[in-house]
Write a structure and sequence with these properties.
heterodimer; A: alpha+beta; five-stranded antiparallel beta sheet; B: mainly beta; Methylamine Dehydrogenase, Chain H; 2 domains; four-stranded antiparallel beta sheet; globular; kinase (chain B); Serine-threonine kinase receptor-associated protein (chain B); repeat (chain B)
């Protein structure tokens, strides 16, 4: 590193991307008031915070497990179950940042083999592989 | 301990991002719209970059996008020869305005009653949004395609840029008041109402003119061809980006280059400060938008300043990174105890 004495500004999370399923504009999402609201019950803010932090830790652990699973899939043969009972197999390459697309190679389809392809996540019902 | 800028990458577009605009500050915060060659402009929360929705309907690349002041309406200009007006809360298309050629630029008046459009047919058009069926008023005079058109002087005048000229028009009489000629192609134009300043970029130059008289105020030269520049609301800084993929930050008063940031993987097409000046957004050929802090290390939006004595347990600290990221060191993946990827690169991947 050229500048070992600087640390990058930490971030809470990355900006959320499109969900890949809808065009968005969720009615509850956008027009929420910007003022923070107080806790609803007389329960202390501390208890609420520790429950939230437990949930966040659980979410982080699950997310990490999922990302590790994607890492383990790289270069392996994966079987995809798509809509309408279609099954295809391919070598897994990568997903994009929002996991909206799966980049695969040697995709075996009912009509032939595609050297390289993108599978839309919204088209995939399930996938399985042997590490 | 000095802090290093962490840009926030907004993904979702699949082609180059060619234009972006912020709304004003509303009771719900402020918003950001991005125009993309994939034909699907997106609305995002301005301070976090969170995706809110995608405006679906255009059948070609979207070249220009804007929001009205209170972010209730959006307008887009596209290669399908139409400009569209949208409800920015529901995402519904409200109006399709047919043109005779590619539309490049759209701008609302302060009261959202009129929409100004311009494009390859070299005509400026003014639509009365309360009378969508009525024919627009047209202003001719440009001799090449219009790249940018903006209302100015409290919507009493219009500024428009084509390849080599910037022209000032009177709204009421629809006649040209003044024009500026350039030897090089004008790449962008920004209008700052407070102080009536016009920011124009061409070649490697970032020039500031009076929006009222078009007289030059000052100009700076950047190290590379600049495609877009933006002046901070308090006029302390300006940011610019262009063909060398870097973002430059200058002191407006002295012209001193303060910072330059790498991060984008392609030329930068547009850059704009947020209405509160706390961040600026850049849109690039690489298909992403990035949000950058004006004051690096400040707690704002998704950026969280961590003081040395604070327990940073509340921060999400990912322990792994995607193998596809070229910059990530392999040690980070191999080492289970590697505490954070923040120490390696400015690119943060969840």
């Amino acid at each position: 590193m050229q500048t070992p004495l600087t640390i990058p500004v930490p971030v809470l999370r990355l900006p959320r991307g499109p969900d890949g399923l809808s065009r968005g504009f969720a009615p509850d999402g956008r027009r929420a008031p910007r003022m923070p609201e107080g806790p609803e019950t007389p329960e202390s803010a501390g208890v609420q915070e520790s429950r939230e932090s437990q949930e966040q830790q659980a979410r982080a652990a699950l997310r990490e497990r999922y990302l590790r699973s994607l890492l383990a899939m790289v270069g392996h043969q994966v079987s995809f179950t798509l809509h309408e009972g279609v099954h295809v197999t391919a070598h897994f390459g990568a997903t994009d940042l929002d996991v909206a697309n799966f980049y695969v190679s040697q995709l075996q389809t009912p009509i032939g083999v595609q050297a390289e392809a993108l599978l839309r996540c919204s088209d995939i019902i399930a996938y399985t592989f042997k590490p | 301990m000095a802090m290093r800028q962490t840009p926030l990458t907004c993904s979702g577009h699949t082609r180059p991002v060619v234009d972006l605009a912020f709304s004003g500050i509303t009771p719900y915060g402020y918003f950001l719209i991005s125009a993309c060659k994939d034909g699907k402009p997106m609305l995002r929360q301005g301070d976090t970059g969170d995706w809110i929705g995608t405006f679906l309907g255009h059948k070609g690349a979207v070249w220009g996008a804007t929001l009205n002041k209170d972010a209730t309406k959006a307008a887009t200009a596209a290669a399908d020869f139409t400009a569209k007006v949208w409800d920015a809360v529901s995402g519904d298309e409200l109006m399709t305005l047919a043109h005779k050629h590619i539309v490049k630029t759209v701008d609302f008046t302060q009261d959202s009653n009129y929409l100004l459009t311009g494009g390859q047919d070299k005509l400026l058009r003014i639509y009365d949004l309360n009378k969508p069926e009525a024919e627009p008023k047209e202003i001719s005079g440009h001799t090449s395609g219009i790249k940018k058109a903006l209302w100015c002087s409290e919507d009493k005048q219009i500024l428009s840029a084509d390849d080599k000229t910037v022209r000032l028009w009177d709204h009421a009489t629809m006649t040209e008041v003044k024009s500026l000629n350039f030897n090089m192609s004008v790449s962008s134009m920004e209008y700052i109402p407070e102080g009536e300043i016009l920011v124009i970029t061409y070649g490697r130059s970032i020039a500031f003119h009076s929006a009222v008289s078009l007289d030059p105020i000052k100009s700076f030269e950047a190290p590379a061809t600049i495609n877009s520049a933006s002046l901070h609301p308090e006029k302390e800084f300006l940011v610019a980006g262009g063909e060398d993929f870097k973002l430059y930050k200058y002191d407006y008063n002295s012209g001193e280059e303060l910072e330059s940031y790498k991060g984008h993987f392609g030329p930068i097409h547009c850059v704009r400060f947020s209405p509160d000046g706390e961040l600026y957004a850049s849109g690039s050929e690489d298909g992403t938008l990035r949000l950058w802090q004006t004051v690096v290390g400040k707690t704002y939006g998704l950026w969280k300043c961590v003081l040395p004595e604070e327990d940073s347990g509340e921060l999400a600290k990912p322990k792994i990174s995607f193998p596809e990221t070229p910059e990530e060191e392999l040690e980070e993946i191999a080492s289970e105890n590697s505490d954070s990827i923040y120490s390696s690169t400015p690119e943060v991947k969840a």
